[in-house]
Fold this protein.
Amino acid sequence: IDAVDEAHLGHESDIFVPIEQIEPQVIVLGYDQHHDEASVAAALDDRGIDCRVERAGPREPQGVGELLSTGDIIERVLERRG
């Protein structure tokens, strides 16, 4: 994916472990993710992690075949692998 510079695996039981390791300045939640920005920000604050939480807005595909959802990406990968 062109927009991804770096990717990290999550933690099996604690979603904040990778965040503590990466120390990001901003976490951007997808427009359709179920997480509440305020709850995530409060959990970060409770752990002493100084990080802003934002919500991305949806956008329309820029070209034919552009994939914007994880489900669509997974489906295409599975199709190509047969």
Observations:
- The chain is about 35% helix and 10% strand.
- Strands lie at 26-29, 52-55.
